[in-house]
Amino acid sequence: MKDTTAQWMQDNLLDFDVVKEKLIHPRQGTETRFYGLYNQSYDGRFSNDVFRVVTDEYKVYDNNSLALLTEKICDTQKVKIEDCRVRMNKGFNIIVVEIPMGKFEIPVKKRGDVVDKYIRISEDRTGVTGLNIGLYNVVLSCTNGMTTTERKTRFNLSHSSLLEHQLNLFQANLPDFINGQQIFEEKCYEMARRNIDDYMVKKVVEMAARLEVKNAVESKNTRIIDKIMQSVETEISEKGATKYGLFNGITRYFTHEYGNPDNRLKSSLPNGYTDKKQKMIFDFLN
After folding, report:
1. 54, 74, 93 - which closes a domain
2. Model pLDDT for residues 92-128, shown as the tens digit of each residue
3. What is the tens place of the pLDDT at every residue in 28-48?
4. Which domain holds residue 269?
């Protein structure tokens, strides 16, 4: 591992180990057939609380492996690892690494909307997705996250697979990554050219509300609609009354207003709540 990578891990609080140990029966004092996962660091940052119970077959993917994978992808893409952003939940068991891959600009009402692009690596040790390399994660409206809808441009990796195998898979998928990014950019440009009326805004907002809460009581559904509408109005005022402005309003709600920060991070993982809902709205608008 390079010195710059080790420093990057320390700067982003990734300098801890994921430990798997046999669990002891609390009353009998004997070993069970289950193992507990907990975080361990040398600065006393963690309390050894088990955050997940696993079997012996579960392979721990530690932070050094994640950092090495990030380092190698950065090398292939000519990116400095210190420019990569790391996001984690409070329990430090969901980690998202975003490798910057340039920008593109959408012409909007007040100014050009500069959109950042990332290759996204997510590691979920709570058992939802495992290690995942996502397509260019396109940041819309501040820090809203949106990935393209091309299914073939995203793949999961086994915790037990070798680093060389992971990198080979990444390289093999890279052409699809780039193609999917280009398709997504074209759709964003097209949405920015398509004007909308009040009827479409109402229809999409109500659709988003139904996606959040099914069979909700009328009063709760109304509150959700009001919150989504506020986000939509904010984005349309900045980006214009277009499908692009409308879509940004929806993503703003799901990534800024829905739930708490931990829930938003988890739900943005592949096949998570926000990830699915944003795709459905994006597909509807296209």
Report:
1. 54
2. 888 889 898 888 888 776 666 777 888 888 888 876 6
3. 889 999 999 999 887 778 877
4. 193-285
Both 45 and 78 in a single domain? Answer: no
Domain count for the chain? 3
200 and 175 within one domain: no
Q: Encode 129-158: b = buried (16+ Cβ within 10 Å), e = exposed.
A: bbbbbbbbbbbbbeebbbbbbbeebbbebe
DSSP conformation letters of the chain: --HHHHHHHHHTT---EEEEEEEEPTTT--EEEEEEEEEE-TTS-------EEE-TTPPP--HHHHHHHHHHHHHHHT--GGG-EEEE-TTS-EEEEEEEEEEEEEE-SSSEEEEEEEEEEEEETTSSSEEEEEEEEEEETTTEEEE-S-GGG-EEE-TTS-HHHHHHHHHHHHHHHHHHHHHHHHHHHHHHH-B--HHHHHHHHHHHHHHH-TT--HHHHHHHHHHHHHHHHHHHHHH-SBHHHHHHHHHHIIIIISS-HHHHHHHTSTTSHHHHHHHHHHHHH-
- Does residue 137 form part of some domain? yes
Q: Is residue 188 part of a domain?
A: no
Tell if the pTM clears 0.70, that is, is over it: yes
